């Protein structure tokens, strides 16, 4: 099959490699014409990975008009770019029948919507589309190196989820079908916030006991939040839930974890936020989830603590003591 990937970042390249491994013809859209030309000529990636050799079969274009030739399109961009992507689709895909596969984690920042929900509400009614997401625990570099990886194909339409499952699955990239869009998308967003908290603990010098407790109690907050909005509790104990949470909150490969580590080492968030130049999805997610949780009276002590650190500039070491000395309670999920 011929597949167009809107995006040329690390995860877009990883998914492109998976699809190429499966015999599909893949073309990636790269806005940067200079980078696009370099990738086309050399197939050497230097922006995200040092001198990494990509599959020779991958094709690259900076001409978005070519998207009109494809009926399967993968979106792999930061959540802040989703609105622009939809606007482009509404210009280029009118009267087309397409399967759109989202690979973006997070929430659409202008509306605070889940990505699939935003796509449904804003894609033109003149586009005949089906939607799915490919989500779960997977760092792009490891996927490119064919490290064994398991993720979810997510769509409320089970047949669509199964089609995407077949499209991506191979001997190193295993895909499970899932129909709980709400649970999968909220998990994939909130875990970035928990990863910042984990990095803060690491930066402050706390060890495995601390991060294990954080991840476990962070999972309980994912469950509490998601089920409030109709998610299935079981989803949070799967790949897009605990799987993605463990990966993102346990590794320096995670931008969110690394961002948190900087804050922890300084015992302050001000300079880290001021000097940050990378996409840290969890920074925005903390604010959104904090506001929604307040509105709906959802108990999320870790998110509330992160809000104090990131938006009220409270000292992390002091906030951690506050959260540890809260009234004792029975453990629940």
Structural class by sheet pairing and helices: alpha/beta
Helix content: 40-55%
Find the count of extended strands (DSSP E, 2+ residues): 12
Largest sheet: 8 strands, mixed
The value of Rg in angstroms is 20 Å
The secondary-structure element order is EHEHEEEEHEEEHEHEHEHHHHHHHH
Shape: globular
This entry's quaternary arrangement is single chain
Quote the beta fraction: 15-25%
The total count of helices amounts to 14
Separation of the first and last Cα atoms: 43 Å
Write out key terms for the chains shown.
333 residues; 50% helix; 8-stranded mixed beta sheet; single chain; globular; two-stranded antiparallel ribbon; alpha/beta
Protein described:
By secondary structure, this protein is an alpha/beta fold. 50% of the residues lie in helices and 15% in strands. It has helices spanning 10-21, 33-42, 82-92, 115-122, 140-144, 158-168, 181-204, 208-228, 239-248, 255-266, 270-275, 281-296, 301-311, 316-324, and strands at residues 2-6, 25-29, 44-45, 52-53, 59-61, 72-75, 97-102, 107-108, 113-114, 128-135, 149-154, 173-178. The strands form 3 sheets. An 8-stranded mixed β-sheet has the order 5-2-1-6-7-10-11-12, with helices on both faces. A two-stranded antiparallel sheet has the order 3-4. Strand 3 (44-45) and strand 4 (52-53) form a beta hairpin. Helix 7 runs parallel beside helix 9.
Short description:
By secondary structure, this protein is an alpha/beta fold. It has 14 helices and twelve strands.
């Amino acid at each position: 099959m011929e597949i167009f990937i809107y995006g040329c970042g690390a995860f877009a390249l990883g998914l492109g490699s998976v699809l190429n491994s499966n015999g599909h013809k893949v073309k990636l859209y790269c806005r940067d014409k200079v980078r696009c030309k370099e990738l086309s000529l050399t197939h050497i990636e230097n922006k995200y990975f040092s001198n990494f050799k990509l599959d020779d079969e991958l094709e690259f274009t900076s001409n978005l008009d070519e998207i009109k030739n494809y009926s399967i399109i993968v979106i792999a961009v930061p959540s802040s770019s989703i609105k622009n992507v939809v606007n482009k689709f509404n210009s280029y895909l009118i009267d087309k029948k397409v399967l759109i596969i989202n690979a973006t984690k997070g929430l659409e920042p202008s509306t605070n919507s889940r990505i699939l929900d935003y796509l449904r509400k804003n894609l033109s009614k003149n586009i005949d589309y089906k939607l799915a997401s490919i989500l779960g625990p997977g760092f792009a570099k490891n996927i490119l190196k064919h490290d064994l990886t398991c993720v979810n194909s997510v769509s409320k339409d089970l047949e669509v989820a199964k089609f995407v499952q077949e499209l991506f699955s191979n001997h190193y990239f295993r895909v499970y079908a899932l129909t709980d869009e709400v649970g999968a998308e909220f998990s994939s967003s909130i875990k970035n916030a928990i990863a910042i908290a984990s990095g803060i603990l690491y930066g402050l010098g706390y060890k495995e006991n601390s991060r294990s407790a954080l991840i476990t109690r962070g999972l309980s907050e994912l469950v509490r939040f998601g089920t409030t909005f109709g998610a299935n509790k079981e989803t949070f104990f799967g790949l897009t839930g605990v799987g993605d949470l463990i990966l993102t909150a346990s590794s320096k490969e995670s931008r969110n974890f690394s961002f948190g580590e900087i804050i922890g080492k300084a015992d302050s968030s001000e300079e880290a936020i001021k000097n940050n130049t990378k996409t840290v999805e969890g920074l925005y997610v903390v604010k959104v989830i904090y506001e929604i949780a307040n509105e709906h009276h959802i108990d999320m002590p870790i998110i509330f603590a992160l809000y104090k650190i990131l938006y009220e500039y409270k000292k992390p070491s002091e906030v951690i003591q506050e959260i540890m000395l809260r009234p004792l309670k029975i453990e629940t999920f």
